[in-house]
Design goal:
The protein is of the alpha/beta class and about 270 residues long. The chain has 7 helices and 10 strands.
Length: about 270
Amino acid sequence: MYTRLIIACEESFIEKKTVVEKIKALSTGDKIVMNQKQRDHVEIDFFGKFVLASNNENSFIIAGKKDIRYWVRKIPLPAGDRVNLLTEMIDEIPHFLHYLNRREMYSGKKSRMWFSANDIHTEALTKLIEYNLPKAAKEVRELIRQFFIEFEDAELHITAKQLAAALNNRHESFNLIGVCEEHFGVKFLLDNKGEKNVKTCTYKWRDYMEGRDNYEVRKNKRIGQALVFRREDFLSDYETKTRHTSLSATSLPEQAEIDFSENDKVCPF
C-alpha cells in the first residue's frame, strides 16, 4: 500500500463510519505513517488514489450532501465479452503512458482535491446521497416532492409542527428542523430585521374520495415560524415541465376546497 499509487478495492461495501472517515483523511493527506514489523514508525510522503468498485451503486459507501471527495461514475456494461482483455490492457500500457506524458491538462487545480465539487458531481453521486439519507429526511423529501407535484406553488411555507403532523407525528418537530437544515438547506423565513418571521402558514393536500372521480383540496392553517421549501430544490425542470404538460392535456375533475382550523377534529393536523 505504501509504495502504490492506486489503491483499488473490488466489490466494495463500506458501512462503518470510522472506515469512511479514514479513507477521507487519507485521500486529502500528503503524509502517512509506515508501520513495518521490527522497525520504528516512519512518516513518508503519500500519493495514493482510492478506487472503489461495486455493483451496489446506491449503498457501497456512506455519503452525505457535504461530501465533496467522491467522484462517483456509473460505468456502462461492455457490449460483449473480451476473453483476452488482460493481455490487451498490458499491450496498451506504453500507448497510455505516451498519451499521459504529452497531453494538456483539461482542468486547472481548483481545490485540495484538484477538481471543484461541481466538476465531479454526477447523477450517480446524487443517488448515493439520497439513498444514505436518514429515514426522517427521506420522508420529508417525499412529502415536499408530492406537494410540489400536486400544486404549482413556487414555495411552501410550513411550520415545524405542521410538518410533523403531516408525517403523522412519527418525528418530533424540533428534530425535523435540524433534518431540513442539514440535508436540504432549508431556512426559516426572516423579516427585514433578520429575525424569524411569524406568519400564518397554509399547508394543502388533496383528499381523493374513494369510489369517486373528484377530490377535495384540504387546508390546514397555523401561525408560527415558517420553514421555506423551494420548488426547484425538490423537482427537476423535467418533472415540472412534465406536470404542466399533463395538466394541459388532461381535464381535471371538479374540486372543492375545505379549510380546516387547527382545532377541527376532522383535520389530521
